[in-house]
Amino acid sequence: MGSAGIGRRAVAAACVAALAGWLGLSPAARAGGVATVHSAAQGGAIAGAGVPLSPGTDAPDSAALAKLRGDGLNTVSFFVWWEADGPQADSVHSFTGTEPDAVLSAEIAAAEAAGMRVVLTPVFVCTGCEGDFRGVIHPANLDAFFASYRAFMDHYAALAQADGVSVLFVGSEMSSLENDGPHWRQVVGDARAHFGGTIAYEENWDELGHAAFLDAVDLVGVSAYFPLDDRPAPTLGQLLGDWQTSSAAATRGRHWVASVAALAAATHKPIVFAEAGYMSGQYAARAPYLNFYGITDWQLQADLYQALLETFSGQPWWHGVIWWDWENTDGPALNGRPFHAKTAEAFLQLWYGLGARPSTASQPLLPAVGS
């Protein structure tokens, strides 16, 4: 659906109108287009929205939380940030971008009051690393770094325990340090001393099975930004095929479903897509880990959501997905990553909230909205 030149609110209204039209179909007509099942959010699977937290940004308020719950989502994943001062830093510390504990606890309480489970992911920005990405850090002193990191994680493990958090991620996308099993086992062991819920770790999509300590955690997360297709606007059918055989030039022929299944088989752990998301513009399937602002295409974003859920929801080892990310404002870009007030959110309401499913292969669940 091309929406260039159309205001975000106008297109969102068109999406809602399309949804209302679908709901207004007669039972016979509806049966010809989709099947209805129990909500995918039932049975313990995570149906979540990722929320990056920092001072001055808006976490979902009560109305937004009610909207997410009404869409059928059951989980909010809060990311709280610390900082490492450089690629060889031996410590992490709080900084101006760190959400204060009292504010974080209040946001957790509000999410739980709205009927949502809470996932807490403490992470750090690596100032001076390429892209500020923590996954390339190489501390000069590993013992000193991990002592600092354990203190960081223990702080949030205690907060998570006090606030009733369901899942704590003790690390995310830290590829350069994942082969250090002994240090990570100390991280996990210390966190368990403070937190009695589910302990998880998140691997990056291109490092599956690399972490040497996954047997120590309860749940394995994947940062699921798998390259799928280089075309500007692939169809839903093409996207479904891309999960079996990637069409992206950088990863051509990769069978992503088999790769994730192999991770589940090797670890004997349930797998959750702790982050998955797409830009809402053309070329969104090419390199989903990049913020590439192509020509606005909300239907493509929704089709990417549908292709992922159709592909993985039937897998017994798959524990759900946290969509990155929720935005509680209109935001700066019609073609950005947030799904709020776009076709993708209308799709999630159908899939999660109403339990609707396509009755034929490669059929978009939400009809395209003409612009």
CATH-level-4 superfamily name: Glycosidases
- Lateral strand order in the biggest sheet: 2-3-4-5-6-7-8-9
Q: Give the topology string: H per helix, E per strand.
A: HHEEHEHEHEHEEHHEHEHE
Distance between the termini: 7 Å
The pLDDT mean sits at 87
Strand tally is 10
CATH class: Alpha Beta
Residues in helix, %: 25-40%
The protein's oligomeric status is: single chain
What is the approximate shape? Answer: globular
Structure description:
By secondary structure, this protein is α/β, with parallel strands linked by helices. The chain has one domain: Alpha-Beta Barrel (TIM Barrel), CATH 3.20.20.80. Helices cover 35% and strands 17% of the residues. It contains 10 helices and 10 strands. The strands form 2 sheets. It has an 8-stranded parallel barrel with strand order 2-3-4-5-6-7-8-9, surrounded by 4 helices. A two-stranded antiparallel ribbon has the order 1-10. Helix 1 packs parallel to helix 10, helix 7 packs across helix 9 and helix 9 packs parallel to helix 10. The chain starts with 7 loop residues before the first helix and ends in a 13-residue tail after the last strand. The N terminus is likely disordered.
